[in-house]
Write a structure and sequence with these properties.
The protein has about 300 residues and is mainly beta. It has 2 domains: about 5-100, Udp-n-acetylmuramoylalanyl-d-glutamate--2,6- Diaminopimelate Ligase, Chain: A, domain 1 (3-Layer(aba) Sandwich); about 110-295, UDP N-Acetylglucosamine Acyltransferase, domain 1 (3 Solenoid). The chain has helices at about 10-15, 55-65, 90-100; strands spanning about 5-10, 25, 30-35, 45-50, 70, 85, 110, 115, 120, 125-130, 135, 140, 145, 150, 155, 160-165, 170, 175-180, 185, 190-195, 200, 205-210, 215, 220-225, 230, 235, 240, 245, 250-255, 260, 265, 270, 275, 280-285, 290-295. The strands form 5 sheets. The chain has a 10-stranded parallel beta sheet, with no helix packed on it. A 9-stranded parallel beta sheet has the order 8-11-14-17-22-25-28-31-34, with no helix packed on it. The protein is globular, with a radius of gyration of 23 Å. The mean pLDDT is about 95.
Protein backbone atom coordinates (compact mmCIF):
# COMPACT_ATOMS: atom_id res chain seq x y z
CA UNK A 1 0.00 0.00 0.00
CA UNK A 2 1.19 3.49 -0.88
CA UNK A 3 0.84 5.81 2.13
CA UNK A 4 1.74 8.92 0.13
CA UNK A 5 -0.64 9.60 -2.73
CA UNK A 6 -3.28 12.10 -3.74
CA UNK A 7 -6.73 10.83 -2.77
CA UNK A 8 -10.08 12.51 -3.19
CA UNK A 9 -12.89 11.28 -0.95
CA UNK A 10 -16.35 12.45 -1.91
CA UNK A 11 -19.45 12.13 0.24
CA UNK A 12 -21.16 9.54 -1.93
CA UNK A 13 -18.18 7.17 -1.98
CA UNK A 14 -17.57 7.69 1.74
CA UNK A 15 -21.13 6.77 2.64
CA UNK A 16 -20.72 3.46 0.79
CA UNK A 17 -17.94 2.56 3.24
CA UNK A 18 -19.71 3.74 6.39
CA UNK A 19 -21.93 0.78 7.24
CA UNK A 20 -21.51 0.69 11.04
CA UNK A 21 -23.90 3.52 11.86
CA UNK A 22 -21.14 6.14 11.83
CA UNK A 23 -21.94 9.84 12.10
CA UNK A 24 -20.09 12.48 10.09
CA UNK A 25 -19.40 15.99 11.44
CA UNK A 26 -17.77 18.82 9.54
CA UNK A 27 -17.74 20.62 6.24
CA UNK A 28 -18.96 18.90 3.10
CA UNK A 29 -16.66 17.11 0.71
CA UNK A 30 -14.92 16.28 -1.40
CA UNK A 31 -11.87 15.96 0.85
CA UNK A 32 -8.41 15.93 -0.70
CA UNK A 33 -5.85 13.86 1.19
CA UNK A 34 -2.30 12.73 0.54
CA UNK A 35 -1.58 10.33 3.41
CA UNK A 36 -2.84 8.31 6.37
CA UNK A 37 -0.74 8.83 9.51
CA UNK A 38 -0.73 8.53 13.29
CA UNK A 39 -2.38 11.42 15.21
CA UNK A 40 0.96 12.94 16.19
CA UNK A 41 2.50 12.68 12.71
CA UNK A 42 -0.55 13.76 10.73
CA UNK A 43 -0.64 17.05 8.83
CA UNK A 44 -3.39 19.08 7.21
CA UNK A 45 -3.49 16.65 4.28
CA UNK A 46 -3.74 13.47 6.39
CA UNK A 47 -6.34 11.09 7.73
CA UNK A 48 -5.94 9.48 11.16
CA UNK A 49 -7.83 7.55 13.83
CA UNK A 50 -7.72 7.91 17.60
CA UNK A 51 -8.20 4.89 19.82
CA UNK A 52 -10.65 5.39 22.69
CA UNK A 53 -8.32 3.32 24.87
CA UNK A 54 -5.61 5.99 24.85
CA UNK A 55 -5.43 8.00 28.07
CA UNK A 56 -4.66 11.14 26.07
CA UNK A 57 -7.37 10.59 23.42
CA UNK A 58 -9.07 13.92 24.16
CA UNK A 59 -5.75 15.79 23.92
CA UNK A 60 -4.97 14.09 20.61
CA UNK A 61 -8.37 15.10 19.25
CA UNK A 62 -7.46 18.71 19.93
CA UNK A 63 -3.80 18.64 18.92
CA UNK A 64 -3.74 16.48 15.79
CA UNK A 65 -3.40 18.40 12.54
CA UNK A 66 -5.21 15.73 10.51
CA UNK A 67 -7.91 16.91 8.12
CA UNK A 68 -10.01 13.76 8.69
CA UNK A 69 -10.26 12.07 12.12
CA UNK A 70 -12.03 8.80 12.93
CA UNK A 71 -12.83 8.48 16.62
CA UNK A 72 -15.16 6.87 19.14
CA UNK A 73 -18.79 7.97 19.41
CA UNK A 74 -18.23 9.75 22.72
CA UNK A 75 -14.85 11.30 21.95
CA UNK A 76 -14.32 14.86 23.20
CA UNK A 77 -11.89 17.59 22.26
CA UNK A 78 -11.49 20.72 20.18
CA UNK A 79 -12.39 19.48 16.71
CA UNK A 80 -11.88 22.74 14.86
CA UNK A 81 -12.78 22.65 11.17
CA UNK A 82 -11.68 19.09 10.52
CA UNK A 83 -13.96 16.30 9.32
CA UNK A 84 -14.83 13.99 12.25
CA UNK A 85 -16.25 10.51 11.74
CA UNK A 86 -17.62 8.96 14.92
CA UNK A 87 -17.91 5.19 15.13
CA UNK A 88 -18.69 2.46 17.65
CA UNK A 89 -15.67 0.67 16.14
CA UNK A 90 -13.31 3.47 15.05
CA UNK A 91 -10.43 1.17 14.20
CA UNK A 92 -12.61 -0.91 11.87
CA UNK A 93 -14.03 2.21 10.24
CA UNK A 94 -10.51 3.55 9.69
CA UNK A 95 -9.38 0.24 8.22
CA UNK A 96 -12.26 0.23 5.74
CA UNK A 97 -11.67 3.80 4.61
CA UNK A 98 -7.95 3.16 4.31
CA UNK A 99 -8.47 0.04 2.21
CA UNK A 100 -11.11 1.68 0.03
CA UNK A 101 -9.21 4.85 -0.84
CA UNK A 102 -5.50 4.24 -0.23
CA UNK A 103 -4.89 0.64 -1.34
CA UNK A 104 -2.81 0.15 -4.48
CA UNK A 105 -4.76 -1.10 -7.45
CA UNK A 106 -3.47 -4.54 -8.44
CA UNK A 107 -3.17 -5.05 -12.18
CA UNK A 108 -3.73 -8.73 -13.01
CA UNK A 109 -1.01 -10.60 -14.82
CA UNK A 110 2.16 -12.65 -14.48
CA UNK A 111 5.47 -10.88 -13.90
CA UNK A 112 8.08 -11.78 -16.54
CA UNK A 113 10.45 -13.06 -13.87
CA UNK A 114 7.94 -15.60 -12.53
CA UNK A 115 8.31 -19.26 -13.47
CA UNK A 116 4.93 -20.86 -14.13
CA UNK A 117 4.40 -24.48 -15.12
CA UNK A 118 2.68 -25.04 -18.44
CA UNK A 119 0.29 -27.29 -16.52
CA UNK A 120 -0.69 -24.56 -14.03
CA UNK A 121 -4.16 -23.02 -14.13
CA UNK A 122 -3.94 -19.28 -13.45
CA UNK A 123 -7.09 -17.17 -13.63
CA UNK A 124 -6.61 -14.15 -15.89
CA UNK A 125 -7.66 -11.87 -13.02
CA UNK A 126 -4.93 -13.21 -10.70
CA UNK A 127 -1.58 -11.52 -10.04
CA UNK A 128 1.68 -13.48 -9.94
CA UNK A 129 4.50 -11.22 -8.72
CA UNK A 130 8.26 -11.12 -9.32
CA UNK A 131 10.24 -14.28 -8.65
CA UNK A 132 7.29 -16.55 -7.98
CA UNK A 133 7.57 -20.24 -8.88
CA UNK A 134 4.30 -22.00 -9.68
CA UNK A 135 4.02 -25.74 -10.20
CA UNK A 136 1.04 -27.69 -11.48
CA UNK A 137 -1.33 -25.64 -9.35
CA UNK A 138 -4.59 -23.70 -9.54
CA UNK A 139 -4.62 -19.94 -8.84
CA UNK A 140 -8.11 -18.45 -8.50
CA UNK A 141 -9.72 -15.20 -9.59
CA UNK A 142 -8.29 -12.10 -7.96
CA UNK A 143 -5.64 -14.02 -6.02
CA UNK A 144 -2.45 -12.02 -5.35
CA UNK A 145 0.96 -13.66 -4.96
CA UNK A 146 3.15 -10.72 -4.02
CA UNK A 147 6.69 -11.92 -4.81
CA UNK A 148 9.00 -14.93 -4.43
CA UNK A 149 6.08 -17.22 -3.56
CA UNK A 150 6.66 -20.93 -4.19
CA UNK A 151 3.56 -22.96 -5.03
CA UNK A 152 4.04 -26.71 -5.42
CA UNK A 153 2.18 -29.23 -7.54
CA UNK A 154 -1.37 -29.96 -6.44
CA UNK A 155 -1.86 -26.68 -4.59
CA UNK A 156 -5.17 -24.83 -4.97
CA UNK A 157 -5.40 -21.13 -4.14
CA UNK A 158 -8.91 -19.70 -3.98
CA UNK A 159 -10.29 -16.43 -5.23
CA UNK A 160 -9.06 -13.19 -3.70
CA UNK A 161 -6.49 -14.92 -1.51
CA UNK A 162 -3.37 -12.88 -0.75
CA UNK A 163 -0.02 -14.62 -0.35
CA UNK A 164 2.84 -12.42 0.83
CA UNK A 165 6.50 -12.57 -0.16
CA UNK A 166 8.53 -15.68 0.54
CA UNK A 167 5.64 -18.01 1.34
CA UNK A 168 6.03 -21.71 0.46
CA UNK A 169 2.87 -23.72 -0.22
CA UNK A 170 3.12 -27.46 -0.74
CA UNK A 171 6.47 -28.35 0.78
CA UNK A 172 7.04 -31.84 2.18
CA UNK A 173 6.21 -32.11 5.85
CA UNK A 174 8.25 -33.51 8.73
CA UNK A 175 7.47 -37.21 8.47
CA UNK A 176 10.18 -39.75 9.30
CA UNK A 177 10.53 -43.24 10.84
CA UNK A 178 13.50 -45.16 12.11
CA UNK A 179 14.13 -48.44 10.35
CA UNK A 180 15.43 -51.75 11.72
CA UNK A 181 19.04 -50.62 11.39
CA UNK A 182 18.53 -47.35 13.23
CA UNK A 183 18.51 -45.29 10.08
CA UNK A 184 15.88 -42.69 9.25
CA UNK A 185 13.50 -42.96 6.32
CA UNK A 186 11.19 -40.24 5.06
CA UNK A 187 7.48 -40.43 4.31
CA UNK A 188 6.85 -39.38 0.72
CA UNK A 189 4.22 -36.63 0.83
CA UNK A 190 1.84 -36.99 -2.12
CA UNK A 191 -1.09 -34.96 -0.79
CA UNK A 192 -2.24 -31.43 -1.56
CA UNK A 193 -2.68 -27.95 -0.07
CA UNK A 194 -6.02 -26.18 -0.39
CA UNK A 195 -6.12 -22.45 0.36
CA UNK A 196 -9.71 -21.25 0.14
CA UNK A 197 -11.01 -17.84 -0.88
CA UNK A 198 -10.06 -14.63 0.94
CA UNK A 199 -7.28 -16.29 2.93
CA UNK A 200 -4.22 -14.17 3.69
CA UNK A 201 -0.82 -15.69 4.48
CA UNK A 202 2.03 -13.56 5.84
CA UNK A 203 5.60 -13.33 4.61
CA UNK A 204 7.90 -16.37 4.81
CA UNK A 205 5.27 -18.73 6.16
CA UNK A 206 5.24 -22.40 5.16
CA UNK A 207 2.29 -24.73 4.61
CA UNK A 208 3.20 -28.41 4.17
CA UNK A 209 1.26 -30.58 1.78
CA UNK A 210 -0.75 -33.49 3.17
CA UNK A 211 0.84 -36.89 3.41
CA UNK A 212 -1.94 -38.58 1.43
CA UNK A 213 -4.86 -36.17 1.74
CA UNK A 214 -4.90 -32.37 1.95
CA UNK A 215 -3.74 -29.63 4.27
CA UNK A 216 -6.62 -27.13 4.24
CA UNK A 217 -6.84 -23.45 5.14
CA UNK A 218 -10.48 -22.46 5.00
CA UNK A 219 -12.25 -19.32 3.87
CA UNK A 220 -11.29 -15.97 5.36
CA UNK A 221 -8.50 -17.14 7.65
CA UNK A 222 -5.65 -14.65 8.23
CA UNK A 223 -2.14 -15.90 8.97
CA UNK A 224 0.85 -13.81 10.04
CA UNK A 225 4.50 -14.01 9.05
CA UNK A 226 6.87 -16.92 9.81
CA UNK A 227 4.08 -19.38 10.56
CA UNK A 228 4.64 -23.12 10.01
CA UNK A 229 1.60 -25.29 9.33
CA UNK A 230 2.31 -29.01 9.26
CA UNK A 231 0.94 -31.73 7.01
CA UNK A 232 -2.74 -32.73 7.17
CA UNK A 233 -3.81 -29.72 9.26
CA UNK A 234 -7.33 -28.35 8.83
CA UNK A 235 -7.60 -24.65 9.65
CA UNK A 236 -11.21 -23.51 10.02
CA UNK A 237 -12.92 -20.45 8.61
CA UNK A 238 -12.00 -16.96 9.80
CA UNK A 239 -9.25 -18.09 12.18
CA UNK A 240 -6.63 -15.53 13.18
CA UNK A 241 -3.07 -16.85 13.50
CA UNK A 242 -0.38 -14.37 14.52
CA UNK A 243 3.29 -14.47 13.56
CA UNK A 244 5.84 -17.17 14.42
CA UNK A 245 3.23 -19.79 15.32
CA UNK A 246 4.00 -23.50 14.87
CA UNK A 247 1.08 -25.83 14.18
CA UNK A 248 2.18 -29.45 14.11
CA UNK A 249 0.77 -32.03 11.72
CA UNK A 250 -2.84 -33.28 11.73
CA UNK A 251 -4.01 -30.49 14.02
CA UNK A 252 -7.56 -29.15 13.62
CA UNK A 253 -8.30 -25.47 14.20
CA UNK A 254 -12.01 -24.69 14.29
CA UNK A 255 -13.57 -21.47 12.98
CA UNK A 256 -12.96 -18.10 14.62
CA UNK A 257 -10.10 -19.40 16.77
CA UNK A 258 -7.36 -16.92 17.71
CA UNK A 259 -3.72 -17.95 18.12
CA UNK A 260 -1.26 -15.45 19.58
CA UNK A 261 2.36 -14.90 18.52
CA UNK A 262 4.88 -17.73 19.03
CA UNK A 263 2.30 -20.27 20.22
CA UNK A 264 3.11 -23.94 19.59
CA UNK A 265 0.48 -26.63 19.00
CA UNK A 266 1.34 -30.30 19.29
CA UNK A 267 0.36 -32.74 16.56
CA UNK A 268 -3.10 -34.22 16.29
CA UNK A 269 -4.93 -31.94 18.72
CA UNK A 270 -8.05 -29.80 18.24
CA UNK A 271 -8.40 -26.11 18.98
CA UNK A 272 -12.14 -25.64 19.16
CA UNK A 273 -14.35 -22.84 17.91
CA UNK A 274 -13.51 -19.35 19.21
CA UNK A 275 -10.78 -20.66 21.50
CA UNK A 276 -8.03 -18.15 22.28
CA UNK A 277 -4.33 -18.89 22.76
CA UNK A 278 -2.13 -16.19 24.26
CA UNK A 279 1.45 -15.28 23.43
CA UNK A 280 3.84 -18.21 23.63
CA UNK A 281 1.22 -20.77 24.68
CA UNK A 282 2.33 -24.41 24.35
CA UNK A 283 -0.67 -26.65 23.72
CA UNK A 284 -0.44 -30.45 23.94
CA UNK A 285 -4.10 -31.48 24.26
CA UNK A 286 -7.51 -30.54 22.90
CA UNK A 287 -8.86 -27.08 23.78
CA UNK A 288 -12.66 -26.72 24.29
CA UNK A 289 -14.78 -24.02 22.62
CA UNK A 290 -14.35 -20.43 23.86
CA UNK A 291 -11.49 -21.40 26.19
CA UNK A 292 -8.65 -18.91 26.79
CA UNK A 293 -5.16 -20.28 27.41
CA UNK A 294 -2.12 -18.16 28.19
CA UNK A 295 1.52 -18.92 28.89
CA UNK A 296 3.03 -17.92 32.22
CA UNK A 297 4.04 -14.25 31.94
CA UNK A 298 7.59 -13.10 32.53
CA UNK A 299 8.68 -12.20 36.07
CA UNK A 300 11.15 -9.58 37.25
CA UNK A 301 14.20 -11.14 38.86
CA UNK A 302 16.33 -9.65 41.65
CA UNK A 303 19.01 -7.23 40.45
CA UNK A 304 21.77 -9.56 41.64
CA UNK A 305 20.30 -12.67 39.96
CA UNK A 306 22.99 -14.65 38.17
CA UNK A 307 25.89 -12.63 39.52
CA UNK A 308 28.81 -14.59 40.95
CA UNK A 309 29.57 -14.12 44.62
Amino acid sequence: MNNSRDVVIDEVELQKVLTLGETVEGSGGPWKLSSAKSPTEADENSMTWISPHLKNASDLMSSTKAKVVICAEGATGNFGSRLVIRSAQPRLTFMRILRSFFADKVIPGIDPSAIVSKDASVHPAAFIGPGCVIGKAHIGKGAVLVSRVTVGDGVEIGSHARIESGVVLGSSGFGFSRNDTGGIEGFLHVGRVIVEEEVEIGANSVVDRGTLGATIIRKGTKIGALVNIGHNCDIGESALIAGNVTISGSTIIDKNAWIGPSAVLSNGIRLSEEAHLGIGAIVVKDVPPHAKLVAKPSQQLPKDFGLST
